[in-house]
Amino acid sequence: MQIAAVEVVPMDLALRLPYQTAYHPEPIESITAVFLRVETTQGREAWGCAAFDPAITGETRDTVVGACQSCAERARDLNPLNTEFALDELSKLTEDAPSALCAFDLAFHDLLGLAADMPLYRLFGGYRRRIQTSITISIADVDATVALARQRAAQGFRILKIKGGLNPELDVRRVRAISSALPQFTLRLDADQGYTVQQALDVARALEGKLEMLEQPTSADDLDALRQVTKESPVPILADESVSQPPSALRVAHLRAADGMSIKLSVCGGLHCAREIDTIARVAQMNTMVSCVNQPALLTAAGLSFALSSRNVEYGDLDGHFDVIGDPTLPGFRVEEGWLIATDVPGLGCTVDL
Fold this sequence. Notes:
Blueprint: E1 3-19, E2 28-40, E3 45-51, H1 54-57, H2 61-75, H3 83-91, H4 98-116, H5 120-123, E4 130-132, E5 135-137, H6 142-154, E6 159-163, H7 168-181, E7 186-190, H8 197-206, E8 213-215, H9 223-232, E9 237-239, H10 246-255, E10 260-264, H11 265-268, H12 271-283, E11 287-291, H13 297-309, E12 313-316, E13 329-330, E14 334-336, E15 339-341, E16 351-352
Parallel strand pairs: 5-6, 6-7, 7-8, 8-9, 9-10, 10-11, 11-12
Antiparallel strand pairs: 1-2, 2-3, 4-15, 13-16, 14-15
Helix pairs in contact: 2-4, 3-4, 6-7, 7-8, 8-9, 10-12
């Protein structure tokens, strides 16, 4: 199979609700996404997408668009079905833009599914057809946090991921308030690296029995601190920002620095890399969560394909598309009461109306 043309289309998309975290001092009101349309000489059409959080990867619109354009030129000389070789070649052009590599990874895997006439989640293993996702509650005061939680509950979600990390005592009050208002809900707390070891342990002990997990409580670079929290915490600890590529996943696994790992396709570079991280976690007997940034539904479809394919994926956190306004993606998956459900449309199962 040979690529005939690659179209790179950047878009700025507004968010329905502003989004605030410990490392976003100002609320995020919009995102940049870069769509790829790949045409082959055989007449097939596939799609990829880059979305990024500058606070996590340091990427900018210019670096991502530039990397996508460089990859588009190189891709014309590659067979996208030789996925391992093709992505290895493009990785040399995307060292500072993992979301750009992710976009081509998605497009090439979309072509692979189309060529096989199979949905990707089945091509990768087909462990399940649905997974329940959390929905994120951004940083706010106690009353606003509970109001946001009730709003998400009315939309059918039953797992809430509360953003925190700026004020440990306030985070405890916020979680307790949601637990009181919605006692049957599953709650997760994402501290986004905001705690010291002692603060993390104080929060975990105060919220024992109320949290399913505490995500990335300490600095991503300080694995000794994360390991200490994991060793003493009564609540399971997930590494998020500490895991960006297979080598960092291997370090977390070697040190037993967490109970599990969060995997974001746009951060690690796509499905190929995500599956490598999941394999490392599985061998280390650590579970994984498939997570996301604010992103179009095309990226969510890719994350869902991966999440459904692996027995080791225990948690879904694939809510990044719900508040994106003007997303041109026409997803093939369904959403029912907080569950993401696959269909048997080949490839990623999405089309893009551009």
